[in-house]
Amino acid sequence: MENDFNYLFIEPDKEIADFVENLGTFQNLSDEAKEVVIIPDGRIDLFFSQSASEPFHVTLLGLETYPEQRFIAPHMTTFVVSFKPLAVEYILNTSIADLLNIGKELSPDFWNFKADDIKDFSHCCTKATQKIKELLPLKVDERKRKLFELVYASKGEMSVQELSEKTGWSSRQINRYFTKQLGLSLKAYSTILRFRASLEHIAQGKLFPELNYTDQNHFIKEVKKFSGVAPKELSRNENDRFVLLSVLKGR
Predict the structure, then answer these.
(1) Which of 79, 88, 96, 109 has the smallest count of CB within 10 Å of its CB?
(2) What is the spatial distance between Cα 44 and Cα 23, in angstroms, rounded to a whole number?
(3) Taking residues 11-18, what's their average pLDDT?
């Protein structure tokens, strides 16, 4: 990646892994804005950011269901906590149903973070991890924990009916929970996870469906829906616009 745009993502401590997918940082050290395309990945992101033109601010982003072009401001530094859906209820204690494809500004002293904190990634990781551990619930509904384990393990390919049977939770209750907490159905969320799993294959240059798509046309149509481009162009990833794909290629 360009030397003036740096990023790093790490996995969380096992103790918080049911709720957090990873912790990361990215910096645009350039004098120009960096164009990126945000694509759906099934995560809920909490950003702590500051740039030359913007004061320190904290933003919570809901789930994305379509690609969106954004610009990272010049000389911006960001620390991000990427949550799994279970965190919405148990760590963030809120619903993000009204944040589909958008974000909202939180208090600038959220979790007691300060502008100086985000200059040190290791320090941020330690501080955020400690805070999340303090917020861990005494008890989690095992149906919900099992549901998300299965959804992730199957890469979104397990049907709602099968998930219902394996968790002992009715399909109607599951979809009501998803709609209330996340703003979309379980099926819609699972489709996003399947697309994201396909990104790992595309990052390896595999431009044909490896997962349970009806055919090549179905695969291309879904990749276009969530990324805005065909698999071949996505794989090319000109100017590293698709940061998530760049991260996967770098593994």
Answers:
(1) 109
(2) 12
(3) 96
Q: Which residues pair with 77 in a beta bridge?
A: 27, 50
- Residue 17, classed as helix, strand or coil, is coil
Global pTM?
Answer: 0.92
E strand spans, 51-102: 57-61, 68-72, 76-83
Write down the domain spans for the chain: 5-135, 142-249
Assigned CATH for 142-249: 1.10.10.60
Q: How far apart are CA 186 and CA 67, in angstroms?
A: 19
Nearest-5° Cα angle at 128, 29 to 126 = 85
Q: Provide the pairing of β-strand 34-38 with 20-28.
A: unpaired
For 174-231, give the DSSP string: HHHHHHHHTSS-HHHHHHHHHHHHHHHHHHTT--S--SS-SSHHHHHHHHHHHHSS-H
Q: Label residue 246 by pLDDT band (50, 70, 90).
A: confident
Fold of 5-135: Jelly Rolls (2.60.120)
Q: Which amino acid is at 153?
A: A
Query: Cα(150)–Cα(250) distance, rounded to whole angstroms?
Result: 27
Pick from 251, 188, 196, 178: which is nearest to 82 by CA? 196
Report pLDDT digits (tens) over 104-139: 999 999 999 999 999 999 999 999 999 999 999 999
Half-sphere exposure of residue 60: CA atoms within 13 angstroms, side-chain side: 21
